[in-house]
Specification:
By secondary structure, the protein is mainly α. Helix content is about 80%, strand content about 0%. The chain has eleven helices and no strands. The longest helix is centred in the middle third of the chain and has 31 residues, at about 95-125. The mean pLDDT is about 85.
């Protein structure tokens, strides 16, 4: 029963055009176009290094697009259509429904990572530098995904409507891309007040050191670990608050 429910959820995720478009097609397309245009101005000696760094930094779009935008849009639509309530009528509890959705998101994100990096290998010659570094890299990626899923779930529950939910998560998405340096501006170019904000978001140090993490060359993880824990804590608190508000509304 659980396997069939998970299979249904994955079909549902892929059937929602927000996720295939923003979570799969868009990151791969940007990963092909942007690195190729940037490295033309880079000396040949460091071209592959710069290329790999950009590819790894841009992979941050996958958990953001799938786990944040896609999940929020999908769950908000389901709330409007009272899908969780209908599931209860078939004996599927809300907890089981949410767990299945989360598992489905992680499955889709894992496949998207695979497709993205295989594409980058054939297009840009991207390779695995260090197995341990790769495991650390993906460990942080999945922690980010967990945080984004909690935050997007809480936003969808608190707002309750698809339109405002989608508008808010899109604004947060572009702000996170901007503040992490994934939209052209580097951390060094930010005014001091924006640098202070960027310092509190794990995507900033992760994007800056993505290639070092991938090669297992990063020696100090303290800032990245602290900000990742903070992001997870924010997600957990928002989730607790949204569940409390939801129970009050019943």
């Amino acid at each position: 029963m659980q396997a069939r429910l998970l299979k249904y959820e994955i079909r549902n995720i892929l059937g929602n055009f927000f996720i295939p478009l923003f979570g799969i097609i868009f990151p791969i397309f940007m990963g092909i176009i942007i690195p190729a245009s940037v490295v033309e101005e880079v000396p040949k000696l460091i071209r592959q290094e710069v290329l790999n760094s950009i590819i790894l930094s841009m992979s941050l779009m996958i958990p953001l697009c799938v786990g944040f935008i896609g999940y929020a849009a999908s769950y908000a639509q389901e709330n409007e259509k009272q899908i969780p309530l209908r599931m209860k009528l078939f004996g599927i509890s809300n907890k089981r429904f949410i767990v299945t959705k989360v598992l489905g998101q992680f499955c889709v994100i894992s496949v998207t990572f695979l497709v993205y990096f295989v594409t980058m290998h054939f297009v840009h010659g991207f390779t695995i530098s260090n197995f341990k570094g790769m495991l650390i890299f993906f460990a942080f990626m999945y922690l980010f995904t967990a945080a984004f899923l909690m935050i997007s779930h809480a936003i969808a529950d608190l707002i309750g409507k698809f339109g405002p939910t989608y508008g808010l998560v899109m604004c947060i998405y572009f702000f996170l891309l901007f503040i992490s340096g994934s939209m052209g501006m580097r951390y060094e170019d930010f005014p001091p007040f924006l640098q202070k904000i960027a310092d509190q978001i794990p995507l900033t140090p992760f994007g800056q050191h993505a290639y070092d993490i991938w090669r297992d060359k990063l020696t100090n993880y303290s800032s990245l670990i602290q900000t990742t824990i903070s992001l997870l804590a924010v997600g957990a608190l928002l989730l607790i608050w949204s569940n409390y508000k939801k129970k009050q509304a019943i």
